[in-house]
Amino acid sequence: MWDVVSGLQVNLMKKTSMGRASPGETTKEVDTIGEKRKGKELDGNIFKKTRISTQTTINNIFKKNLREEVCLEISTFFYKNGIPFNVSRSEEYSRMFEKAIRYGQGFKPPSYHELRVPLLKKHVELVQQSLEGHRAYWKQVGCTIMTNGWTDKRRRTILNFLVNSPKGTIFLKSIDASHITKTADKIFKMIDDVVEEVGEENVIQVVTDNAANYKAAGEMLMKKRKKLFWTPCAAHCIDLMLEDLKKKSNTSQGHNLQR
C-alpha cells in the first residue's frame, strides 16, 4: 500500500515540477521523504481526518442553559414585584446588567439601606448637577414654564411646574394646592414665584390650561412682567372644543328623540 502511495506522489511531483527539476532529482527527493515517513509509526490510517472540537458546542449548550436560569430569576423578580414590562425597554435596564457583568463574579446588589439613603442622595446630587446645566442653557436661549394641575388618589390637588428649552424638558417642582383656593390671585402668586425662581430674564412664555382662573392669572402676570407671554395650552383648548362638540351632539340626539 505504501508503494502505491509513493508512486502516486512521484507522479504528482513530476506533473507540478514543470521542468524545474529533473526526473531523477524528483524521484530521489520523493524517495528520501518516503524513507523518513517509513521510520515513523503509522496508526493504519494514512489519510487522517481532522477531528472537530466539541468544546465550543458544549460551551454554547452550557451558556444557553445558564441564560435560561438567569432569565427565569429576572422574570420572577418582575412578576412578584409588579414591575411593568416596559421597564425592560429602558436604557438603564440593559446598562444595569452590563455594569454588573463588568464587575464579575461576587457582585452584591445594593441593599435596602443603600437604595433608600446613600444612593438616593447621590442621585439627588446628579439631578442638581443636571439642573445647573439646564439653567446655564436657559440664560443663553430662554425657556418656557409649563404648569399642569391634577388630582391624585387621595383627592389632593397637585400643581406640577416644568421648564422646557431646546435642551429638553425638566421637572422643576410640585405644589400641594389642596388648601389653596383656585382663584386667579392665588394662581398668579404661585406662577409668579416660579418665574422668580427660574429668573425673569430667562423666561420667554408661561403655558397653562385655558380655564378662566388661569387665563386671568396669565393676564395679571403679563401686566407685571412685560417681557414674557402667557399662552394657553393647545391640548387643553382642543379638549374643551371636543367636550363642547360632544354636548352639542348629545343635545341634537335628544331633540331627534323628542321628535
UniProtKB/TrEMBL annotation:
Species in which this protein is naturally found: Arachis hypogaea
- SUPFAM superfamilies named among the record's database cross-references: Ribonuclease H-like
Q: Which Pfam families match?
A: DUF659 (PF04937)
Membrane-spanning ranges:
none
Residue stretches making up the DUF659 domain: 110-247
**What is this protein identified as?**
DUF659 domain-containing protein
